[in-house]
Prior knowledge:
Number of strands: 7
Strand order of the largest sheet: 3-2-1-4
CATH class of the largest domain: Alpha Beta
Low-confidence stretches: none
Shape: globular
Mean pLDDT: 94
CATH superfamily of the largest domain: HUPs
Radius of gyration: 19 Å
Structural class: alpha/beta
Order of helices and strands: HEHEHEHHEHHHHHEEHE
Number of helices: 11
CATH topology of the largest domain: Rossmann fold
Largest sheet: 4 strands, parallel
Amino acid sequence: xxxxxxxRAAALQSLLGNLPEVAVAFSGGLDSRFLCHAALLCGxxxxxxxxxGPHVPRQESLLAQSxxxxxxxxxxxxxxxxxxxxxxxxNSRQRCYGCKRGLVAALRRALARWPEAVLxxxxxxxxxxxLRPGLRALAEGGVRSPLAEAGMSKEVxxxxxxxxxxxxxxxxxxxxxxxxxxxxxxxxxxxxxxxxRAEEKLESLGGAAGGLxxxxxxxxxxxxxxxxxxxxxxxxxxxxxxxxxxxxPCEVRVGGSPTGFFDA
Length: 264
């Protein structure tokens, strides 16, 4: 492991060593999985709080729950619907703030039986430098971000995760479904469900190989599919999926990263 990564890992270990009981806002993404993993290695008692709602694809939620149980975490499921929050209902540029503000409150309520647990999330050092309106809600709610506090970038998280035996250290980021909608386009539960199902079908093309690579299906409000790859052999299948989901005609962009669009 490179010296810089070892130094960041040592900083995280020192930080977690002073937090004997940790409650992690657990999405099942790499950062929150790594934080749980690191806390367990440091001897912390770990409670994983997984929020599920219309903004979280069901399949991703099930995978997160399965991972937490397989790794012996105390898992708390938190039912949370951010859509009524004014910032989310109007889909403003502060939607992440409104969503996170309500989420922190919901997590705090779920933690009533664990008064000693320190509520943490998986924000890393890169996130602090990006457009993340939700960070203000985390600060207002007293949520700790150990990875960011230890100066761990996403790449360092991957390196340390790999070096300490965490599975899937190259896991791709999968931001919530609200990021698929252009600002000002009101989110509805049925619309988010259709997006989630369409993305799940698109991701299944190519089987375990993940034929389209990283992808996002977005609404501007016109549909836009961003895919890392799109072999000619699958174009007809892609069109079929999009037609059946009601997202056709659809612009398709292939190549490059699908991130950095509507905040993620």
